[in-house]
Design brief:
Layout: E1 15-17, H1 26-29, H2 31-39, E2 45-46, H3 55-77, E3 83-87, H4 89-100, E4 108-112, H5 119-122, H6 126-138, H7 169-184, H8 191-201, H9 220-240, H10 246-256, H11 258-267, H12 277-287, E5 292-298, H13 306-323, E6 330-336, H14 349-360, H15 370-373, H16 376-388, H17 392-407
Parallel strand pairs: 1-2, 1-3, 3-4, 4-5, 5-6
Helix pairs in contact: 2-17, 3-4, 4-12, 6-11, 7-10, 7-11, 12-13, 14-16
């Protein structure tokens, strides 16, 4: 959300990519960090993506999403430098985009908690436990809960209720998520969805098969009555007390929708990422071309590989100097307090400000912050609140990003 940005003072356009899974809803998972950057007049483009074992396909999708909005941003804000910002898997994707997609320029990159591990190193017991489990969950995505072979031609059960073909749990998950999406929007499921679910759950043959119609049609008058008398009042009451937030529920479902597709990818044979870590390292070493790079790592982050990518980018710097000796190529690494999930650990900026004012006793009834009240004591108390609530690290991350971009005139 960049509603508070002044068109005349906008600094740069950072396309932001979040970490694995949470990257599907960056404005939910990283809202504090993004709002703080936007408050400093950076034009944040939080780009959601679906996690996949195929990083190249994911990068293609990310680039396509950004290119669709880039012309509008250029018309509204003018030509601005594009600074890639990524956390964890998002940092890795920024490196791939900068190395493998020469038509996608990056003036600079800020890579937070960069890591590039094999699946078996990133996911404990992947080969022994996770992969077999996922194959079993995926099952046969072409059968329903009862297969035709369970019944004789007369429709009688021939296997005492034992199914030899296991239906796909991922198909069932997807139907559940579709129902969840309708519920989040305060709507009854459409007839087509009800028909699909009925066909999936019902036997193809046997005594119960005749009970399922070819198409389920809820009469419009009945649908309207249920919607107006039952659904709408509940939804309205929940929204009034803040229980139901449509954007939050939608984005939570965006995150959850990745799980069935990842299970299916493993069931279809995926056992490592494409490209694998060795190929990513080779690409970064030979083709990385962002002229300025900031690496942010956290002291208690066991997944971080910032030092490795710093070494690879140092080799890329030497390659660049041989090709274009006059080009500046800067790499900076900084270490902050925190751990891998630190950038995600903060409430929305407005909520955080209210919490800080209440718990620190700062700002009075008007809610003035330290800049207006001039009280250094108040700011110290707010810092203590951030530290106690475990999002001081997210605040320091923003400060480091702003410092680095301002120093580079980005």
């Amino acid at each position: 959300n960049n509603n508070n940005i002044n068109n005349n003072t906008t600094k740069s356009t950072p396309p932001f990519l979040g970490g694995a899974l949470v990257g599907a809803a960056p404005d939910l998972s990283y809202r504090y960090l993004l709002e703080k950057l936007a408050s400093q007049n950076f034009l944040i483009v939080a780009t959601p993506y679906r996690l996949s074992f195929d990083y190249i396909r994911t990068c293609d999708d990310i680039i396509g999403r950004f290119e669709r909005v880039a012309p509008h941003l250029a018309r509204s804000y003018g030509a601005l430098p594009v600074v890639g910002v990524g956390h964890s898997c998002g940092a890795l994707l920024q490196v791939l985009i900068t190395s493998l997609f020469p038509d996608t320029p990056r003036a600079a990159n800020a890579l937070i908690s960069y890591n590039n591990k094999n699946v078996k190193d990133a996911v404990p017991f992947f080969e022994e436990v996770v992969a077999p489990l996922f194959v079993g969950l995926a099952g046969d995505r072409n059968v329903t809960l009862h297969h035709e072979s369970d019944y004789s031609s007369e429709g009688n059960s021939i296997n005492s209720g034992i199914n030899y073909d296991i239906p796909s749990s991922t198909v069932a998950m997807n139907y559940a998520l579709k129902l969840g999406r309708q519920a989040a929007q305060g709507q009854l499921p459409p007839d087509d969805l009800l028909t699909e679910i009925a066909k999936f759950t019902a036997p193809k043959k046997g005594p119960l098969s005749t009970l399922v119609p070819d198409k389920i049609i809820v009469p419009p008058t009945l649908r309207t009555t249920i919607q107006q008398t039952l659904v709408d009042p509940i939804v309205q009451a929940q929204r009034e007390v803040g229980i139901l937030s449509l954007p939050m529920l939608d984005q939570t479902l965006d995150v959850m929708e990745q799980i069935p597709s990842l299970i299916d990818e493993v069931a279809d044979g995926a056992r490592d990422f494409n490209p694998p870590p060795s190929s990513v390292r080779a690409a970064a070493r030979k083709a990385y071309r962002a002229r300025r790079t900031l690496l942010i790592q956290y002291r208690d982050d066991g997944l971080d590989e910032s030092e490795l990518i710093e070494s690879l980018l140092g080799e890329a710097k030497n390659v660049m100097r041989m090709k274009r000796p006059m080009v500046e190529f800067e790499i900076e690494r900084t270490t902050l307090d925190g751990f891998h999930a630190t950038p995600c650990l903060a409430p929305p900026l407005e909520v955080a400000t209210q919490i800080e004012n209440v718990l620190s006793g700062a700002g009075g009834r008007g809610g003035d912050d330290n800049e207006n009240s001039g009280s250094g004591g108040d700011e110290e108390k707010k810092t203590t609140v951030r530290e106690n609530l475990r999002y001081k690290g997210a605040d320091e991350t923003v400060e480091e990003l702003v410092r680095w971009m301002d120093e580079g005139n980005l």
